[in-house]
Design brief:
The chain is mainly alpha-helical and about 120 residues long. The chain is built from 4 helices and no strands. The chain has a single domain, classed as Four Helix Bundle (Hemerythrin (Met), subunit A).
């Protein structure tokens, strides 16, 4: 039983760190788009990172730890919103910086929750 708990905690820690790291990467890429008008390939890269983050969130949710689930639900909502904004950018072909600022705001709000998630997992 202790080994199972240790494995679960290790998996949660890894997922939490990846969620946070992916959030930081997404935020950095969005800032680059806003500041330097990078091309559409950057949005596709952000979509890939957001998809990876979604997988990590699902991994964290599968362990059914109430404190973790409570934070993962809004993190997942922000993740979906970031993906939606990125898809709108690709679909509408609008200026990257306009919609990227909206996605950046979502990413920054998500970062606060990701930090709380790391703290919560560390306290388990």
């Amino acid at each position: 039983m202790e080994l199972h708990t240790a494995n679960k905690n290790e998996t949660l820690i890894t997922a939490g760190i990846e969620i946070q790291a992916l959030n930081i990467a997404i935020e950095c890429m969005l800032c680059q788009i806003i500041d330097n008008e990078k091309d559409i390939d950057w949005i596709e890269s952000i979509l890939h990172l957001a998809s990876e983050q979604k997988i990590c969130l699902k991994t964290a949710l599968q362990y059914d730890v109430p404190a973790v689930s409570k934070l993962c639900q809004p993190l997942m909502a922000y993740n979906r919103a970031i993906i939606s904004v990125c898809l709108m950018i690709l679909d509408e072909n609008t200026p990257l910086s306009d919609r990227s600022e909206a996605a950046l705001t979502l990413s920054r709000k998500q970062r606060q929750l990701a930090n709380q998630l790391i703290s919560t997992i560390a306290d388990l």
